[in-house]
Specification:
transcription; Homeodomain-like_sf; START-like_dom_sf; 10-stranded antiparallel β-sheet; coiled coil; DNA-binding
Length: 721
Amino acid sequence: MFDSHHSLLDMSHKTPENEMDLIRDDEFESKSGTDIMEAPSGDDGDPNQRPKKKRYHRHTQHQITEMEAFFKECPHPDDKQRKELGRRLGLEPLQVKFWFQNKRTQMKSQHERHENTQLRNENDKLRAENIRYKEALSNATCPNCGGPAAIGEMSFDEQHLRIENARLREEIDRISGIAAKYVGKPMLSYPHLPPGSSRSLDLGPGNFGPQTGMAAEIYGAADLLRSVSGPTDANKPMIIELAVAAMEELIRMAQTGEPLWIPSTDNSAESLSEEEYVRTFPRGIGPKPLGLKSEASRESAVVIMNHISLVEILMDANQWTSVFSSIVSRAMTIEVLSTGVAGNYNGALQVMTAEFQVPSPLVPTRENYFARYCKQHTDGTWAVVDVSLDNLRPASISRCRRRPSGCLIQELPNGYSKVTWVEHVEVDDRAVHNIYKPLVNSGLAFGARRWVATLDRQCERLASVMANNISAGDVGVISSPEGRKSMLKLAERMVMSFCTGVGASTAHTWTTLSGSGADDVRVMTRKSVDDPGRPPGIVLSAATSFWLPVPPKRVFDFLRDENSRSEWDILSNGGLVQEMAHIANGRDPGNSVSLLRVNSANSSQSNMLILQESCTDSTGSYVIYAPVDIVAMNVVLSGGDPDYVALLPSGFAILPDGPTNLAGGIDPEVGSGGSLLTVAFQILVDSVPTAKLSLGSVATVNSLIKCTVERIKGAVLCEGA
């Protein structure tokens, strides 16, 4: 048996004595490519003496090459990435920051020059067309008498508008025709395309899909995603035209009511009329492939975030993955076809790949290769639409196809926004475990309601992080706004880390183990080396899901309550649990971050600190926790950098076993009012990364998770009896 908590607490960090000597004033620059003037200081300075220039620092070719390569993948590195890049290249993080700022400015200038040239050419064409229209009107003759034609009441502007409308109608027909021609065909038809019209993409080794069985070795997320190449030059015009058509479809799907959307009898949800959809959008991306079923849903909400910030989150793959970490297990921007105009994302178009998950190993993930297009419309509303490009990869068999899906964002006063979300996919969900089928079939597992509920909760959380005061809901040892922000930032990383190991995704740096000894517990392993956010060594992750005949709220309240923790937490050894700090970060009292202290029942053992975040919305709840080092936590509470606190999160995901109506009842045909509970542990089994994993460690983790499950079942069923 091992003690995972004590392994976590051994976190000594050595700081070089000459750390401050690394920063020399004569070599430090404020911005790459600019000179820094130094004014004389003190009484000894000669007022007539000209300011002395500091030495100009030029980056080496190697440094520039490395930063250029990093810029292509991530033009907006965060603090941690800048520190790591600076350490690798021998640069200060501030130097790296300014280089990336200048690079973004340079790219923006180049893009604007290119756009100016295009606009100038377009202006010249319009001017020439204008002249031709005037000449045509002046030379027009009446077909009856042969004399000059009488324009009558119709002005030149009206004539011009009619011509422009006709041109636009032709353009829409042409775009829809191209989309239907190339994208609307089934996969198997692509080998019969004429020579030169192949739409294939190089997928590299392996397939872009989930590993459904136990595998001895898998690709890491970065390697797998990089194996998907960007679109060919021949495909790019078609992607642009497809994105324009998808934007038109999304707006109509979001704004149209009956007969396209059919309200349910209890007004709890809408369903899409597939017949009406085909009539309304006859071309789109083609007919539904055999073996796939349709899922369509629509949901609206008012969220506490301004429209510009929402657009930035959706268009930045890193921010999008962070905010929706419980849904998006991984995402990457493959290629940016347009960065937008006027310094924002209006007109931005990018090709992406993403994997969507439910927090359970029993529900297969859904992978998509798609275009994401952002546009601001004339009424000020922003729209972001996704549309599947899977048919551009004829070598792959898609299990999930994304029809135009996304959201409309309407600006409201006081920093609020109204979001209308549409999810429309075609999917093969036959591999879903039976206990999750009612939830998945209802559309709640991957549908619009889950996206909107998650966004609403995360907007409240972000507003809490940005707050500069300590609210009345905060209690305990937190004494400053800085400490509050650091603790919330640490909890956010803990939640994201938990989500990478709880679902069915095998695309992260985990290796699934065979021979775990239990079919209903998935055990994975990972080696942690040189990662300041995780303890070094071999980590095991174990997860299992099961059904409970108890409402989700009762399970959530039981698991998040520190007073009932000793009933299920084996590793706390029956010690008294005390809440040291509490941060409320949402309207619901269940949305909070806590710092717990476990007072050991054995006087020979030291006390333990546990960081815990609990969150809940109408589609699911989480209780996530991790033991933390006492010294490191004191640094965080004083406003220190939380990125270097080692965490191994464990916890629970609680979902309803079927859809509920507005009155809170359960549909008897698709759910019983019970809960689907996933339990997941991450445990350090050896502090030496090169050590070999013993079967005893796997057996111990299996035993731990099974014992925890039995304790939870016994406690909540006894409580509900």
